Amino acid sequence: MSSATVRSRPGYATTDQAAEYLGLARQTLANWRSLGKGPRFVRRGRIVRYAWRDLDAWLNSPDSK
What we know:
The chain is an alpha+beta fold and about 60 residues long. The chain has helices spanning about 15-20, 25-35, 50-60, and strands at about 10-15, 40-45, 45-50.
């Protein structure tokens, strides 16, 4: 994971897109959500989305190291 990564893309990513972008398994994101860890996400019922700007912010934070 590069600390200089900047997506600069509006909108939201699916869990699959977020996992691929972060280089993580989809299940890792699911586990982190249940533990209150990882990048911020939005839940609408059963649907989970990640804002691209939040993924970039998390990648550039000490928590991602």
